[in-house]
Write a structure and sequence with these properties.
heterodimer, A: alpha+beta, Ubiquitin-like (UB roll), DNA polymerase, domain 1, 2 domains, 5-stranded mixed sheet, B: alpha+beta, Aldehyde Oxidoreductase, domain 4, 7-stranded mixed sheet, 18 helices, 31 strands, globular
Chain lengths: 151, 731
């Protein structure tokens, strides 16, 4: 079916089955491969994007459900929250890096609604994003660093 | 793009507050060797390094990057000896080629094995640049000095940038024995550096296995046999699939006869124009599979067999005195059994590989830990000439040992050959957990009887686990190998004048492989919990008890001879334990409801002591704080070492707290992250790391932080008033 979707501010018209997960539309049809496939069941957060600002697991979200909505992916973060990316680099957060697109999109959504999150609030907001390398402590630091920079 | 060759030219230090700056740091070239825009000569005295006429230094990293920071560390080492400016260095990823030496990126040995060769490469280039400058000035080379990307002649206040010296330097002989810098002059080795890929990762532009698309490429979504050894018989494709124009077809792959090795398992590949079409069709296939003897495999039954295995004498690897008689006649002995389950690597990136077979040649782009073994295995299976097989690693989205086995690459090669077009194989999480090369389950039994001073006078330890060799070498190699036992068992630092060390192996009905820290995980668990049990019996502090066990000891000898310069020294083990005692305030009284647990372990030639603090008021004993001390000898990137210890605590907590895999009727029962429970952000403690300032030879960093975590947690839980937990997972 014909679907109209707005990704990172650009409108796209696609002819895909309506049950196609947003993840695979981003990766295979729009070549936005920064969003990663981790589990396919919304359990790991590697595929996190924002839909109208809300962090969302794109592997479980059908393309039909986001028709007409504003979708933001990691590729837009450099324009939306460049200081968050700076903090990620300065704290040397990433190890293998594969989960970090999802981590960043969850962190960006948290900071958009909570200017100074506590450790507990960070843990709660980020609990859906697995990092097998175990960079959680540095993710906390990078979020705090970004928040402090905005004070 | 007309080639698979990936030149991952990474720089660091890109900060992007000026958001207009977008750095395209990936380039796909038609050949591996760097091509400089002006076509001039470059200086390349080594396969690891090239200096361009524009001054750009390209360091070629021949080891795979999976998060351990090797690309950054390799560049630091070369940069040190070259006296290069860090901001003018880029890092390229090498393809698999024997000219680089070993590329098998596991065993925490990239820096250990290549520290000197990389230094030599940098130093040789430096000496050639200095000679070229000296020649142009008509002065002696020893009057000249290389620093900050240029050669300087102080007495005449002249200098020439590296780039301008490249043409002349490239015509000189490469020095075979260049002079290496003195340690006190190091500016890069030992410093903290941000990883060269940090910016690409944070902007979503880093390239992993599934991120490259070739023209005319199709996707293969795999449906693997439910039981190891089965092959597909009949496959019924639903009508809906045949009506889908994006569905291309199915291909059956039979389980390879003979040893399992790195061969593909039985599967049906769903070939499609896009991934989701493949996933949807895969879900609806009706497949009948051939029978396999592994259908009877059951992990509970297997665990019981391991328990039975430690009830009687196994193969004796070490025997002094007469432990058997003393233990049989002892009035009182401590007899404890420790158990650990099957574990999976579960890297966040499920296996994925691209292969493009054209006639009798193939190019592969895949997240592999060992591109040479991948290449050689393709040669062995497909019969291609080795020069017609190119394998280039992408970044690895985590690996932990999984991606040293190229079974998923062989699938891509076979399918590309059949389909005559580029194929990207995509595993789903269920495939990844089902067909891992699993971390072996184990049972260990420790028995000791203590003298009046509380120290052991007789000691017997037995271990039972399925050997990795039974999977990767030959099915009849069931006995644990000496190198597996020297991971914390036959090289135990807990010695006794009457001691027996025994091992038993059993064949499992699933694939066994090496997972970050390998057998050290279960051997460190048994040994460190048992020592705490003995300390309690003796009425002694657990750290004091360990120190008492080591009194008068100098070195530990395992089943295999030590590598020169890498002897297992008790002094270094004692030091990390004393340091973690101080850092964790071990001897101070804790607030009510808090407790500390300790463990210390030597692995991958490094020494790690870990103290965990738990919240006793939490029924799950949440770990609030971790203190780690690492002695890995000389280290390169200080921040990477800290990061690897932090990551190891979290990786270790996954195994310690909740991770466990089970099998029934030969099939895995936990097939995604709702069953296989990995540590998440709320599980992560605050972690402090001390690196021992050492001038010893470089040793392992990626793995040795993991083994102490699980025993430290078990010991902390007990000291918090919990029961003695001898079986992983603990929560």
């Amino acid at each position: 079916m014909a679907i109209t979707m707005k990704v990172n501010g650009m409108e796209h018209q696609l002819d895909v089955d309506e049950d196609t997960p947003l993840l695979w539309v981003l990766r295979d049809h729009l070549s936005l491969v920064g969003t990663k496939f981790g589990c396919g069941r919304g359990l790991c957060g590697a595929c996190t994007v924002q839909i109208d600002g809300t962090p969302t697991r794109s592997c479980l979200t059908t393309v039909a459900a986001v028709s007409g909505r504003n979708i933001s992916t990691i590729e837009s973060l450099v324009e939306q929250q460049p200081d968050l990316i700076d903090a990620w680099v300065e704290e040397n957060v990433a190890q293998c890096g594969y989960c970090q697109s999802g981590q960043l999109m969850s962190a960006a959504a948290l900071l958009a609604t909570n200017a100074a999150p506590s450790d507990e609030e960070i843990d709660s907001a980020m609990a859906g994003n697995i990092c097998r390398c175990g960079t959680y402590g540095r993710i906390r630091k990078a979020i705090h660093r970004t928040a402090e920079g905005r004070q | 793009m007309n080639s698979l060759h990936l030149r991952n030219l990474s720089r660091r230090n890109f900060l992007v507050s000026s958001s207009a700056l977008v750095v395209g740091s990936y380039a796909y070239t038609t050949g591996f060797n760097p091509v400089f825009a002006n076509g001039t000569q470059s200086l390349s005295p080594s396969v690891y390094l090239e200096v361009g006429a524009d001054g750009t230094v390209t360091v070629t990293c021949h080891r795979s990057e999976m998060g351990q920071g090797i690309k950054t560390a390799v560049a630091q080492v070369v940069c040190e000896e070259l006296e290069a400016d860090w901001d003018q260095v880029v890092v390229a990823q090498a393809e698999g080629d024997a000219k680089y030496g070993d590329q098998n990126t596991d065993g925490s040995r990239s820096i250990k094995n290549f520290f000197v060769p990389l230094r030599n490469a940098g130093a040789a280039a430096r000496e050639m640049l200095v000679q070229a400058a000296a020649d142009s000035w008509g002065v002696a080379p020893d009057e000249c000095e290389a620093r900050e990307h240029a050669v300087h002649h102080e007495t005449s206040a002249r200098s020439i940038p590296f780039g301008e010296l490249v043409n002349a330097a490239s015509k000189l002989d490469v020095p075979t024995n260049p002079t290496l810098k003195a340690r006190e002059n190091w500016n890069h080795i030992g410093k903290a550096r941000i990883h060269v890929d940090a910016y690409d990762v944070a902007t979503g532009t880093a390239t992993y296995g599934a991120d490259v698309t070739l023209p005319n490429m199709a996707i293969a979504v795999m449906v693997h046999a439910p039981v190891l050894g089965s092959s597909p018989l009949e496959v019924k494709v639903p009508d809906s699939a045949n009506e889908n124009a994006r569905f291309i077809g199915i291909e059956k792959i039979n389980a390879a006869p003979g040893p399992i090795g790195f061969n593909p398992v039985g599967s049906v590949a769903v070939i499609a124009e896009d991934t989701y079409t493949g996933i949807r069709v895969a879900k609806d296939l009706e497949i009948t599979w051939s029978e396999s003897p592994n259908r009877t495999f059951d992990s509970d039954t297997f665990q019981q067999s391991l328990r039975d295995g430690v009830k009687s004498t196994g193969k004796v690897w070490h025997e002094v005195g007469d432990a058997d008689a003393l233990l049989s006649n002892a009035e009182e002995k401590i007899d404890a059994v420790y158990e650990t389950p099957f574990l999976s690597h579960a890297p966040m990136e499920p296996p994925s590989a691209i292969a493009n077979v054209v006639d009798d040649s193939v190019e592969v782009l895949a997240p592999v830990q060992d591109p040479q073994t991948t290449r050689n295995t393709i040669v062995g299976v497909q019969g291609f000439a080795i020069e017609n097989v190119k394998v280039t690693p992408t970044l690895l989205g985590g690996a932990f040992g999984r991606k040293s086995k190229p079974d998923f690459v062989l699938e891509a090669v076979e399918l590309s050959k059949r389909l005559k077009r580029p194929i990207r194989v995509q595993w789903q999480r269920e495939n990844d957990l089902q067909y891992d090369y699993f971390h072996a389950p184990s049972v260990q039994r420790y028995e000791a009887t203590l003298g009046e001073d509380g120290m052991p006078i007789a000691w017997r330890q037995r271990t039972a686990f399925p050997s990795i060799m039974s999977t990767v070498a030959a099915p009849n190699m069931v006995e644990p190998a000496n190198w597996e036992l020297d991971m914390g068992f036959t090289n135990t630092p807990y010695r006794c004048e009457n001691q027996s060390i025994e091992a038993t192996g059993l064949k499992a009905g699933v694939r066994i492989g090496w997972l970050r820290s390998v057998c050290n995980i279960f051997h460190a668990f048994g040994a460190n919990v048992f020592i705490d049990e003995l300390a309690e019996k003796a009425g002694m502090d657990p750290i004091d008890y360990r120190l008492a066990m080591w009194k008068g000891m100098d070195t530990v000898q395992g089943a295999l001879p030590s590598e020169p310069g890498h002897e297992f020294k008790i002094e270094r083990l004692r030091n990390v334990l004393n340091r973690v005692r101080a850092n964790s305030n071990w001897d101070e009284k804790l607030a009510a409801g808090r407790a500390l647990g300790v463990a210390v372990h030597h692995s991958f030639l490094s020494y790690v002591a870990t103290v965990l603090e738990v919240d006793a008021s939490d029924p799950d004993y949440r770990v609030t704080d971790a203190h780690v001390v690492l002695d890995c000898g000389t280290y390169v990137n200080a921040d990477t070492c800290v990061a690897q210890m932090e990551g190891a605590v979290v990786f270790g907590l996954s195994a310690a707290q909740r991770a466990k895999l089970t099998f029934k009727d030969g099939a895995i029962q936990e097939n995604n992250f709702d069953g296989y429970l990995i540590a998440r952000m709320p599980d992560a403690p605050s972690i402090s790391v001390e690196l021992v300032n050492s001038e010893q030879l470089p040793a392992g960093v990626g793995e040795p932080g993991v083994p102490p975590v699980a025993p430290a947690l078990s010991n902390a839980i007990y000291r918090a008033g919990g029961d003695r937990r001898r079986s992983l997972p603990l929560i």
